[in-house]
Amino acid sequence: MNGVPEDLIVYEIALVVPKRNINEENKCYDCVEVLVNEFRNVGLIVERVLGLSDEFIKLAAPLETLGRVAAKMQMKKTTHIGIDLQFEWEEIKAFVRQPDGSLFSWCERFQCYRHLIYKIVNKKNSDVTLKFDGKEIQWEAGKSLLQRLELEGIVKQVFPLHDEIKRKKLLRSWALNWWDFTAQPIDEIYAYFGTKIAVYFAFLGMYTRWMIFPATFGLILQLIDFGSLKLLVFPAFFISIVLWAVLFFQFWKRKNSALSARWHLNFSVSTSEGYKLSGREWNSLQPPLELVKNSGIDKTKEKEALQRYEWFGYLKRFRNDVIIILSIICLQLPFELAYAHLYEVLKSDMVKFGLTVVYLLVIQYFTKIGGKISIRLIKHENNENTEYQADSLVYKVFGLYFMQSYIGVFYHALLHRNFMTLRQVLIQRLILYEVLENLVENSLPYLKYSYKKYRAVRNKKKREKGLIGKIQFATRVEKEYLKPTYSASISEELEDGLFDDFLELALQFGMIMMFACAFPLAFAFSALNNIAEMRTDALKLLAMLRRPVPRAAATIGAWLNIFQFLILMSICTNSALLVWLYDQEGKWKIEPGLAAILVMEHVLLLIKFGFSRFVPEEPAWVRAKRMKNATQAQDMCSKQLLRTISGREKAFGGYIRRKKPDGTNKTQSCRNQ
To answer: Is the dihedral of CA 563, 569, 570, 571 positive or negative?
Structure first.
């Protein structure tokens, strides 16, 4: 496991409780002591650390503890023959290990930890009375102890801990390695942070490498004066960047598919050509299990119930989308147009600066309101899981950001048709905005951390008057507790900090693509910004923030559709920019050049949709592996079913009961989940 044995004790979870003094006679009834003993009873290794004002309970789990709880959770893992089966600790050698050599991924380990600590329940038939600083707490029968203590405010937080050995290794090989501009240890990032963050950095690295071509082309256009040939060079640049964007996202899908196969993420096995990553089928509205179970034997009623559930889900989603779109059109659009118009007609720079300050304050308020409304609407949609809810939130909130980011640029481009003014606006939006955004994004966590440290020291001095000298934080776990979380600016319950990182990329991509013909040099600026973004984001995750909670989403989710939408918008906007470049007199005559632009626009739209067939979305080796696994699964199930039919074995609901050597029954699934 990269030189780190699996039996090495690594504390990966921490709990925070208030520091207090307890008497020996009350120790057996103290709720924190009971919690610690329960942790040890389920097989966890516990270490208790005293901080300045709190006590920290660090948890580690041996491999056997994780394996047995994974079997209890009926966790599905990939076997050596490519079939995903329910994990069994006794059959550990049958399951494939992770790229770093570990048996469980970080996401799987985190799920096991949560199951272990939150499934500690009162197994007695009566309530248990616990104490905390003289206060009595009733632990009800069948209820979770940790949830009860969280409700009482005794357990302040539960958060993942950084692994110092792996963290320092990633700092050297990734965050501080500026010599390899776009090279990243993606497998190590996946092992340490989980799937979602690893996919983001894989996307960012590939996006930056691919940007070298349009950046070089744009730099040539900016440095060389082509004179009258610019009427031919700019259309060629426009065609090339559209083809570049379309090809990039097709090859990204291939890379995403290859990463999923390399990391042994679950696939739904099928012998057909189409497949979906499990849990990520975009247009499916799966009915809840209770609806299927309670539908009864009547097939007609069952069909009606499922259809009703499906169409009500679509209608609810459509209703919510209409509410958001109408709100943007009726409320935000007039505000954005008014700001753009006032900024254009005002002459004083001081007044413009004041207007911009007011605009930024108001737009932040608009965005927060829009995010809260979107979250309330999403709660009434029939979304399968948290990832689907997060995707729905991304679509709705991006509409707000799209309006506030681009409407001013559209205003200058459509009404004034001045390339010089448009370039000035783009430079302001791209360079100044991205520089300020990176400064705020990377300095704000450090400022928050410094303020929390100062407040903790000040409170310590207030409680214990007479302390002399500098107060030091002796434990790393307390320093991690004071660090900010990797949270989203819009909704912490559905999204983490990746929302802001992907939003920044999407807004940048839209700006450089939709106005490529007006400012080709923007690609070079964006490439330099993304090279710095990779390292600063890595440093932020490894040094400035707590270790994020892992997410198992295997794709970039809703952002892929947003990027595709921006490509379509760029075809339309750049065609309009080329028309204005040809039609400088504003007479809109359908001359050969203008007609050629209109034809080119339609051809590019056809190419955009045709390339999805030209470039397969998964590599040949991934497809061959999937087909091989599907065939093996079919063969195994066929043999088991034939034996069952012949009476040698009995199957119950798709599970085969076999006899173990000791005479007991063992249940095994013959279906690939």
So the answer is: positive
* Two structure tokens written together for 45: 């290794």
3-class secondary structure, 245? helix
- Give the Cβ contact number of residue 472 at 10 Å: 8
Out of 133-137, 165-169, 400-404, 455-459, give the one with best mean pLDDT. Answer: 165-169
Question: Which of 58, 56, 63 shows the shortest CA–CA distance to 8?
Answer: 63
Task: For 650, list phi and psi in degrees, rounded to 5.
Answer: -120, 135
The DSSP result for 111-163, as a single string, is HHHHHHHH--B--SSS-EEEEETTEEEEE-TT-BHHHHHHHHTSS-EEEE---
3-state secondary structure 284-298: CCCCCHHHHHCCCCC
Cα–Cα distance, 77 to 97 (Å, whole number): 9
Beta 135-139 vs 128-132: how paired, if at all? antiparallel
Per the CB < 8 A criterion, the answer to whether 57 and 14 are in contact is: yes
How far is 127 from 119, CA to CA, in rounded Å? 17
Given a contact cutoff of 8 angstroms between Cβ atoms, the answer to whether 566 and 506 are in contact is yes
Mean pLDDT, residues 204-230 taken together:
87
Between the alpha carbon of residue 78 and those of residues 9, 63, 247, 284, the distances in Å are: 26, 18, 32, 24
Is residue 554 within 8 A of residue 194, CB to CB? The reply is: no
Residue with tokens 């020996």: 24
Give the length of the chain. 673
Question: Identity (one letter) of the amino acid at 575?
Answer: S
What does the alpha-carbon distance between residue 215 and residue 210 come to, in Å, rounded to a whole number?
9
Tell me what the mean pLDDT of segment 518-528 comes to.
88
Instruction: Please report which confidence band the pLDDT of residue 650 belongs to, taking 50, 70 and 90 as the band edges.
Output: very low
Other C-beta atoms closer than 10 Å to the C-beta of 616 total: 15
Which residues, listed in sequence order, are joined to residue 645 by a DSSP beta bridge? Answer: none
Q: Provide the percentage of residues in the chain whose pLDDT is more than 70.
A: 79
- Alpha-carbon distance 529 to 511, whole Å? 14
Q: Are 75 and 113 in contact (CB under 8 A)?
A: no
- Round the average pLDDT of the chain to a whole number and report it: 78
Looking at per-residue pLDDT, the higher value among 180 and 249 belongs to 249
The model's pLDDT over 534-561, given as tens digits with 9 standing for 90+, comes to 999 999 999 989 999 988 788 888 899 9
pLDDT 10s digits, 168-192: 999 999 988 878 778 899 999 999 9
56 three-state secondary structure: strand
Q: Using an 8 Å Cβ cutoff, are 77 and 266 in contact?
A: no
Is residue 521 within 8 Å of 528, Cβ to Cβ? no
pTM: 0.82
CA distances from 188 to 6, 12, 174, 202, 607 (A): 16, 17, 10, 12, 37
Q: Say how far apart CA 320 and CA 380 lie, in whole Å.
A: 9
**Residue 611's closest CA among 255, 252, 246?**
246
Res. 296: pLDDT tops 60: no
